[in-house]
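Lab notebook, bench 4. Still working through the backlog of constructs that have no structural model yet. Next entry is a single chain of 75 residues. Request: give me the structure tokens for it.
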Amino acid sequence: MGEVYLELNRLDEAEKLFRKALSIDGGCAACLTGLGQVAMSGRDFTTAAEHFEAALSLIPEADRLHYLLAMAYRG
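Model written out:
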């Protein structure tokens, strides 16, 4: 549901759902990625990079995360 809210640019609702899911499963790479995307949308590139790095530590082979992290560094 967080991803749906993210696509609809309802960032506050998306962030709440990603944080709630992350509190249930602290190793949720999808939640960390979602939080990173919310931060990117808000132009908070430092926070976005932190979330993407945390997600990459869980699944280092995820090419999409490498791209998102590069975009956060670029910002």
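Notes after review: The helical segments are 2-7, 11-24, 29-41, 45-58, 63-74. The mean pLDDT is 96. Flag for follow-up if needed.
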